[in-house]
């Protein structure tokens, strides 16, 4: 039960982060969405051996953490479960690709190690950018930005409803776990033999609750789409923000900043 409660509190905390006021929070949601997409595409475009070239891309998330006032430790804590999975994407590369490309002292550095670290940085940077988007832009604004990009309303509605009502799913799961613990006192967690029935009951209860929610939405005038957010026009500062970051990403992608800085000192 505590785990479900903590999950709901973390969702509420994300909404509170998005309601803060900072130069990043005040930017137009479409601009922030475009910058995030362009950043992720740029990061992913690096090849697996461009380790030194991808490192300067950390400038974007670090700068936005400072500008938005959101602590980096908050990001790491929120993503504590998914970060290890992202970092483990290329974990077998050092064992498969053993071609030595350089040495640091007496330690050989293989192509597999470089590709592993590069893939890890790609995932971490992309997750940081995504976290910064949702922590500085609430879900209504993100859906509004998606509507400006002409994404079909049915997809946007699904995203909004899924995000908003995931707390109800957690509440239902918490209620079922509480009932299970009362019937199995002293047992830690859910027994393996009860997994199937638990998931099945959760699915049935969720479908029943979703039907009631849909009927109540229709009675309140729901017609397959939402009024996501206030119609807000992008200001001059928003376009400057977009053009500036696109220019920085393009510069970092075309030139290996780490190599340039290294040549200045060596």
Concise description?
With 266 residues, this protein is mainly α. The protein has 13 helices and two strands; from the N terminus they run αααααααββαααααα. The chain has helices spanning 2-18, 29-44, 51-54, 59-68, 72-78, 83-87, 93-96, 111-136, 139-148, 153-183, 195-219, 236-254, 257-265; strands at 100-104, 107-110.
Structure notes:
There is one protein chain. The chain is mainly alpha-helical. Helix content is 69%, strand content 3%. The chain has 13 helices and 2 strands. Strands 1-2 form a two-stranded antiparallel sheet. A hairpin with a 2-residue loop joins β1 and β2. α9 packs antiparallel against α10 and α10 packs across α11. The longest helix has 31 residues. It is globular. The mean pLDDT is 84.
For this entry, give a set of tags.
266 residues, mainly alpha, two-stranded antiparallel ribbon, 2 strands, 3% strand, globular
Summarize the SSE layout with pairings.
Blueprint: H1 2-18, H2 29-44, H3 51-54, H4 59-68, H5 72-78, H6 83-87, H7 93-96, E1 100-104, E2 107-110, H8 111-136, H9 139-148, H10 153-183, H11 195-219, H12 236-254, H13 257-265
Helix pairs in contact: 1-10, 2-8, 2-9, 2-12, 4-8, 9-10, 10-11
